[in-house]
Design goal:
elongated, two-stranded antiparallel sheet, 46% helix, binds zinc ion, 2 helices, single chain, alpha+beta, 92 residues
Length: 92
């Protein structure tokens, strides 16, 4: 099981416990859930694509010079799917 799935699993189990428990036991389950969510955020950061920084998209500037149909030249931003991660925003 991948680390990501494992963390998801912990969160799901904690959710079930939060539903079923009361009082201090419920608070403990909420504590576990909070820690798992922190782990999840760290995992995302650690495994994000370095090329697009996890966005899955690469933007680049394209110069559109002045022409008959354009009064002034402009710089356009063009977005393309990141080739490194194929748009997933993750390594591997
Ligand atoms: Zn990428």
């Amino acid at each position: 099981m991948t680390e990501r799935k494992l963390i998801k699993n912990i969160i799901r189990q904690a959710d079930i416990l939060i539903e079923e428990l009361e009082g201090t036991f419920r608070q403990r389950a909420e504590g576990i859930r909070a820690v798992a969510i922190l782990l999840q955020k760290q995992e995302v950061k650690r495994n994000q694509c370095e090329e697009c920084e996890g966005s899955g998209v690469i933007t680049s500037d394209v110069a559109r010079p002045q022409s008959f149909s354009r009064d002034v030249g402009v710089i356009d931003e063009v977005a393309a799917t990141c080739e490194e991660c194929l748009g997933t925003g993750r390594k591997e």
